[in-house]
Design brief:
mainly alpha, Arc Repressor Mutant, subunit A, Tetracycline Repressor, domain 2, 2 domains
């Protein structure tokens, strides 16, 4: 999976460091605006102003706002999957994956993109497709770490377990942001116990 932030160079051509730097600066700024003010605050003019760049440069890298949103989304997916792979290599991989899901910024960004997808049909399909790919990857990672024979009921796939883990983690993050904590410790302890029970020996 690649993103506009990881643009492939043409054969025989080197990546232009200045181009990559300006692209990342634009993407960082757009993501920051989404997190602080919501996706509606993102426009080429606003991003350019916040990044200290000229608007035509934003349009040069990302011709439309939808192109910019998709580049931010793709990069976020790549970064999340990179963290998943890092967690997979750790000695306490399942717990590290579970804790990585409880990231407040990633959760807030995911919610912004869900809202965006519901309001902008032009990019809904691609956001949905990337989300499915990310879920397939999460399921594949869990399949390497879990004793799937110990899963009960048997009908629950690793993709289903990935949905459950992410759903619970995001609920904890969202409620925590509202100052709600009732049941959080119990839920967290139960998930950790459950993952330990399912972990491969």
């Amino acid at each position: 999976m690649s993103s506009s932030a990881k643009t492939k160079a043409l054969p025989g051509k080197r990546k232009d460091p200045r181009k990559i730097l300006s692209q990342n600066r634009i993407l960082d700024t757009a993501e920051k605006l989404m997190l602080e003010e919501g996706y509606a605050a993102v426009s080429a003019r606003r991003v350019a102003k916040e990044a200290g760049l000229k608007a035509p440069l934003v349009h040069y890298h990302f011709p439309t706002t939808d192109d910019l949103f998709l580049a931010v989304f793709r990069r976020a997916v790549v970064q999340e999957l990179d963290k998943l792979e890092e967690a997979e290599l750790s000695s306490d991989s399942l717990l590290d994956i579970w804790h990585s899901y409880q990231n407040s910024e990633r959760t807030a960004l995911a919610l912004e993109f869900m809202a965006l997808a519901n309001h902008r049909k032009a990019i809904r399909d691609e956001i949905a497709a990337y989300t499915v790919k990310a879920r397939q990857h999460r399921a594949k990672v869990l399949a390497t770490l879990l004793d799937t024979d110990a899963i009960d009921p048997k009908s629950c796939s690793t993709a289903g377990l990935a949905v459950l883990m992410l759903g619970v983690a995001r609920t904890l993050v969202l409620e925590r942001g509202l100052g709600i904590s009732l049941g959080h410790d119990d839920a967290n302890q139960f998930v950790e116990w459950w993952l330990e029970k399912l972990k491969k020996d």
